[in-house]
Design brief:
By secondary structure, this protein is an alpha+beta fold. The chain has 17 helices and seven strands. A hairpin with a 5-residue loop joins strand 6 and strand 7.
């Protein structure tokens, strides 16, 4: 493959089989614009100052996976009620796994929390929601996931082309085999499920004397999750969320931004009272969570809740992280 669009070995093979009448093109090839792939290869080689043939070889090994498009089109955060979403993560098994993970990695968690100011329970909540404490880091080749989304998902094509380029950079920098690394269907990697651009920007080595390995080194995973939250302005010792009660005559509110923009008194005057005393002038948001029976839960959320949504923009995700972390913290007290 080069700038004159020379056919790859894969393309030549397909054309030969077509000529002989042996091959019916799968949906995947019909959905990929080869000229767009060639342009990406050429631009990436130029930007990364790498031989065109090296980039072309890697991209030529990518396989289009239609199931990834299907999954991306119906993410759980947009198709489930809060109750169903919460029940995925708030299980006794996952909470127990969090307690075990805490015990096994207590030294690293203590040190990282002390250095960054990020609460241990929040670090645990993120890793627990993202990968079940490292047990479920993903089964898709990251190359396939990013290739599929870059060239088969027009809605976010530019984003995933960027991530595919960053993935090539990441593999070069960290000595990873781009044909082997596995992750989520969106191309996220390691304990904290970092996208390649986030891996490059926020990954942190626990011992500071080598590159960060978020796949094999749990300490690096812990340090990197905390570093991500710290960089996005986590406030040490501050609240994340608390339940709120809705009065009988409360006003119906439009959907509220996750970024705190109104004071507590603003919401109390509209009929929403936090479960515990909070300074009336404190900036907060109010998140409304749908239950399966049509009822709703109300949550006052603070700046640290917003910081968690920098990891994943869904309020459901942030509340699941918060509740899982709190549940692990409580279970650890009783477990000893």
């Amino acid at each position: 493959m080069n700038t004159t669009h020379t056919l790859s070995a894969k393309s030549i093979s397909i054309l030969f089989m077509l000529y002989l009448g042996w091959f019916i093109p799968p949906v995947s090839y019909a959905q990929v614009d080869q000229s767009a792939v060639d342009d990406f290869v050429r631009i990436s080689a130029y930007q990364q100052k790498r031989p065109l043939k090296d980039i072309a070889y890697i991209i030529d090994q990518a396989e289009f996976q239609p199931v990834i498009i299907e999954k991306m089109s119906r993410p759980a955060e947009k198709t489930m009620t809060w109750e169903r979403y919460r029940n995925i993560f708030m299980t006794s098994e996952r909470i127990h796994a969090g307690v075990v993970f805490w015990k096994e990695n207590e030294q690293a968690l203590n040190r990282v929390s002390e250095e960054t100011g990020v609460a241990i329970e929040t670090i645990l909540g993120v890793i627990g929601v993202e990968t079940y404490f490292g047990a479920r880091m993903g089964t898709y080749r990251v190359l396939d996931a990013l290739y599929t989304l870059a060239f088969g998902y027009p809605k976010r094509s530019s984003f995933f082309k960027k991530e595919l380029g960053k993935y090539l950079e990441l593999c070069k920098k960290e000595g990873l085999d781009p044909l082997v690394v596995k992750g989520s269907y969106a191309g996220a990697i390691g304990y904290g499920q970092f996208m390649p651009s986030s891996y490059l920007a926020y990954a942190k080595s626990y011992d500071s004397d080598s590159g960060a390995d978020l796949i094999n080194q749990v300490e690096d995973g812990i340090a990197s999750v905390a570093n991500y939250l710290k960089v996005h302005r986590w406030n040490k010792g501050e609240l994340v969320a608390m339940p709120a009660n809705k009065s009988e005559h409360a006003e119906t509110l439009s959907k509220q931004s996750v970024k705190p923009a109104n004071t507590i008194i603003f919401y109390t005057q509209k009929g929403y009272e936090p479960a515990e005393p909070v300074s009336p002038s404190k900036l907060v948001s109010l998140q409304v969570m749908d239950m399966e029976d049509g009822s709703q839960e109300y949550w006052v959320t603070f700046k640290n809740f917003y910081v968690i949504t920098r990891y994943n923009h869904s309020p459901l995700y942030a509340l699941a992280v918060f509740q899982l972390g709190e549940a692990i913290k409580e279970a650890r007290k009783t477990d000893g």
